[in-house]
Amino acid sequence: MADMKAWQLATPGEVQTTLQLTTVARPPPALKPHEIQVRVISAAINPADYKVPAMGFGARAILPFPKTVGMDLSGEVVSVGSGVGARVFINGGSGGVGTFGIQVAKLLGCHVTVSCSAAKAALCRSLGADDVIDYGAADVVDELAARGRVFSLIADNVGYDPPNLYARAGRVLLPDGVFVIVAAGKHIGHAASAVANLIRPSFLGGGKNKVVLYLTSSNRDDWDALAQWVNEGKLTAVIDKTFEFGDALQAFEHLQTGSTAGKVVIHVSSKD
């Protein structure tokens, strides 16, 4: 394993007497899921770098020694753990679920690719989507395949469109990647196909990746995280159109067009 240089404080005490340029071992290449490895180009020093060590014996209760100085740094990320910057694909990024999905995925540190119409591309990008596929201009699965087998998760918010998305997901999902079925299509055949995907082995035509049929559930930790993001202004609801309570049928008819951008809301009562 190659070594590297570092300025370190050998023991507690004044920086003028304890700071040394030393040779240290490079960190092991194996990273934990949420770790990154950075080649440092510049580092900034802070008062804490010399004040805490100057506490003498008490400094050992706060810092490990020898202590490398320079808590702030800039540099180049040379490797990442498996959970850092995970790539996800959201099929149907501009709908009521997709618009939330983009924001949550970005808040979790993911790289987000979505499919949507050309007219909705700007909306998806404004919510944080890194990569947008116009399903009207190109084959979605071919476009995903061109990006490589790099995705950790596919969330299908459309259902059976494109119909070959799950069957060919093995070309783009990592070996431990997960395919999440959020919508199964409006015909019974589509629902049956979704169920078959859950149980059919790959040698009988099923996919090679784990399939999850999403069902809404309540989790206190998840709700707390969502509430915090909303309060901080990091998560917002995209409203496509609002209907009055008596116009519920018109609301469904509007939703059934399949061209909404965000949530379709029915106004139930006033705050008074």
UniProtKB/TrEMBL annotation:
Enoyl reductase (ER) domain sequence ranges: 16-266
Record InterPro entries: ADH-like_N, ER, GroES-like_sf, NAD(P)-bd_dom_sf, YIM1/Zinc_Alcohol_DH_Fams
Molecular function as annotated in GO: oxidoreductase activity
Signal sequence segment: none
SUPFAM superfamilies: GroES-like, NAD(P)-binding Rossmann-fold domains
Name of one Pfam family that matches: ADH_zinc_N_2
Name used for this protein in its record: Zinc alcohol dehydrogenase, putative
Organism: Metarhizium acridum (strain CQMa 102)
